[in-house]
């Protein structure tokens, strides 16, 4: 009789573990390198969301294990690149990344004149730029590797 109960209980335990994993999204910020691509741009006006080929530019971040990053933007035939260092800290709504550039650059999207950029990695696995807080675009990135 005990053997007959072990199999159903084991299957139920396995099913419960699998359900937890299905909803889990990769938010690991300790495994590098990481590449994040711009997937959505939203403005403050209704119906101003752009995705995929409708984006005005393509953009990506590559984060390295030595706490350096490179940001690349392709807009038409123009390609821009900037790099610097980053740090990660826990925040109430996810993990906050602070990107520090060595000098001011057109690629920096922020709410201040400092050569820094903030990003928030949400538990949903989406990396969000901080410029929306000051009526800038809401930029959303997804990890590709």
Number of strands: 9
Q: Average pLDDT, to the nearest integer?
A: 83
- The CATH architecture classification is Beta Barrel
Shape summary: globular
What does this molecule look like?
The structure is a single chain. 14% of the residues lie in helices and 43% in strands. The chain has 145 residues and is mostly beta strands. It contains one helix and nine strands. It has a single domain (25-143), classed as Beta Barrel (Lipocalin), CATH 2.40.128. Strand 3 (58-63) and strand 4 form a beta hairpin. Strands 1-3-4-5-6-7-8-9 form an eight-stranded antiparallel beta barrel. The longest helix is centred in the first third of the chain and has 21 residues, at 2-22. Mean pLDDT is 83; it is low at 1-27.
Quickly describe the structure.
This protein has one helix and nine strands. By secondary structure, it is mainly β.
What topology emerges from the helices and strands here?
Elements: H1 2-22, E1 34-42, E2 50-51, E3 58-63, E4 68-75, E5 78-91, E6 94-100, E7 116-121, E8 126-129, E9 138-143
């Amino acid at each position: 009789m005990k053997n007959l109960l072990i199999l159903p209980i084991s299957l139920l335990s396995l099913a419960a573990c699998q359900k937890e994993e299905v909803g889990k999204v990769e938010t690991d910020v300790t495994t590098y390198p990481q590449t994040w691509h711009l997937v959505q741009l939203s403005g403050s006006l209704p119906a101003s969301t752009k995705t995929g080929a409708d984006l005005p530019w393509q953009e990506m971040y590559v984060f390295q294990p030595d706490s350096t990053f490179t940001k690349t933007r392709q807009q038409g035939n123009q390609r821009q690149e900037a790099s610097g260092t980053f740090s990660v800290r826990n925040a109430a709504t996810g993990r906050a990344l602070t990107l520090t550039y060595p000098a001011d650059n057109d690629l920096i999207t922020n709410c201040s004149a400092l050569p820094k950029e903030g990003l928030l990695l949400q538990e949903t696995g989406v990396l969000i730029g901080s410029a929306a807080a000051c009526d800038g675009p809401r930029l959303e990135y997804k990890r590709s590797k």
